[in-house]
Amino acid sequence: MDSTTPLPFPNASNDPLERDLAEIDAAIGLVEQGVASRVRLVGLVRPEAVAAAGLARAQEARILFRLDRSPEGISAITLGPRT
Asked: Which of 17, 39, 43, 45 would you call most buried, defined as having the most Cβ atoms within 10 angstroms of its Cβ?
């Protein structure tokens, strides 16, 4: 079994937007470290509100970013693969 380096869990915030951005940052970290080629985030509180900041962070890390909306209006963010 390959050994992995645990990612530090970000400090929990009371602000839902900061929590959503922390999830995006963690997903970016997983792709950067090669632990995952893609990460799909579902259940974020306000994915549309953090999409621009998340996109900027993903682009800085050279990771693809995609915001998807289902016909039911549910949004999810997919990060990866690396570009």
From this structure: 39
